[in-house]
Amino acid sequence: MISITTGQTKKMESSDGLFSSNAFKDFSGQASGRAAKTHDYTCYECGVDYFFEINSLKAVAYMTGQGKGIKPNDYIILQLGSHPQRYQVKSIDYYGHPSEMWIALLKAIA
């Protein structure tokens, strides 16, 4: 199970203004010229291997998980219920410790 200690991460700011912080004031939402990758998390269990929360008012979701190399504009596939669902990473912030732990703002892809 993932354990988070207060003060381990910076706040995020995304290009759509859903976060307010100076941590990423130069964030453009682009993944530095590389093609978007798809990361398959369907074999992991929500609530055990990662945490996922939908904000239906803003049509976005928040995910805390582990893994290296996930960048804005990449895709994450999750098994939530009986069908897999694809999400695009709108913004992501890696924790300082452990370095492969992150929190991301996701948008569902139809």
Describe the structure.
The chain contains no helices and 6 strands. The protein has strands spanning 38-40, 51-55, 60-66, 75-80, 83-94, 101-109. A 6-stranded mixed beta sheet has the order 1-4-5-6-3-2, with no helix packed on it. The radius of gyration is 13 Å and the shape is globular. The model is unreliable at 1-31 (pLDDT under 50).
Contiguous uncertain segments of 5+ residues: 1-31
Residue share in β-strands:
35-45%
Q: What is the H/E string?
A: EEEEEE
* Sheet with the most strands: spatial strand order: 1-4-5-6-3-2
Number of helices: 0
Keywords:
mainly beta, 6-stranded mixed β-sheet, single chain, globular, disordered N terminus, 110 residues
